[in-house]
Amino acid sequence: KLPVLYGIQADGAAPLVDNKIIKNPNTIASAIRIGNPASADLAKDSINESSGEFIKVSDDNILDAQKIIARKEGIFCEPASAASVAGLIKLISKGYDFSNKNIVCILTGNGLKDPENAQQYLQSNIIKTSSDPDEIREAILKY
């Protein structure tokens, strides 16, 4: 059976979602910052054949997904890879039911490819404590 495919694009670079060429694509996810995909017809055919769809996610959604992946799975992926998880989160929040389904989000890019965005995003989330074990434990439990 053919799996259902979902194509995830960033808000500022979503030519397949918007069905038009984006002259100046803009997203933090540099690997998907494409305004006129070379294989657009093939991608559209694949999505249609599988009864899937294209959706857009914001840069904030992508950064949130990147953080979740790092925290929950210990994987530091680059923003374009995190877009797949951001898309899954968005679909679930829209009421899509993936119960009893096998879900695959492909993360091909290492976070070291684009560390600046993650570093900026994480700077505001640094927790500072003394070296006291009780204070450290308390800070971890709050987090």
UniProtKB/TrEMBL annotation:
Residues 5-109 form the Tryptophan synthase beta chain-like PALP domain. InterPro entries: TrpB-like_PALP, TrpB-like_PALP_sf. Pfam families: PALP. This is Tryptophan synthase beta chain-like PALP domain-containing protein. It comes from marine metagenome.
